[in-house]
Design goal:
The chain contains five helices and three strands, in the order H-H-H-H-E-E-E-H. By secondary structure, the protein is an alpha+beta fold. It has two domains: 62 residues, 434 Repressor (Amino-terminal Domain) (Orthogonal Bundle); 56 residues, no CATH class. The chain has a three-stranded antiparallel β-sheet with strand order 1-2-3.
């Protein structure tokens, strides 16, 4: 990741974090600055607060597409689009869950958007099982 792109990512993350309303994410209490705290954003993205801070400072390296998607949306869910070598285009809805106060306990659940996609995934999974 180049210095300019790391700096741009950091600027984006700071700007996005300051525009997120803590109350809409279930956080309360007095704040010195607008938006979510770094620790709160890191928890939602299932990354360490240290790494998130480094990303904002332009020294954390390149995050994965999944981490970027959660950081970009600022929420705990959305739609994941990918290209599978056998299924072709796949769209999955995802939800991120974590145990309050435990950054090490988190899960992202993916579900097909419709019945047709669920059937294609089920058929592909059944190919890997012996009968």
């Amino acid at each position: 990741m180049s210095v300019n792109s790391a700096r741009s990512l950091g600027d984006f993350l700071r700007s996005r974090r300051s525009r997120l309303d803590p109350a809409s994410f279930g956080f309360s209490g007095r704040r010195r600055t607008p938006g979510l705290r770094r620790e709160e954003v890191a928890q939602r993205a299932h990354i360490s607060p240290t790494w998130y801070t480094w990303l904002e400072q332009g020294r954390g390296g390149a995050p994965s597409p999944d981490v970027l998607e959660v950081l970009g949306h600022g929420d705990a869910g959305g739609v994941k689009r990918l290209m599978h070598p056998e299924l072709g285009p796949v769209e999955l809805e995802y939800s991120a869950f974590s145990v309050d106060g435990r950054l090490d306990l988190g899960m992202i659940a993916y579900t097909p958007l419709d019945g047709e996609m669920a059937g294609r995934i089920k058929l592909l999974a059944s190919r890997g099982q012996s009968t």
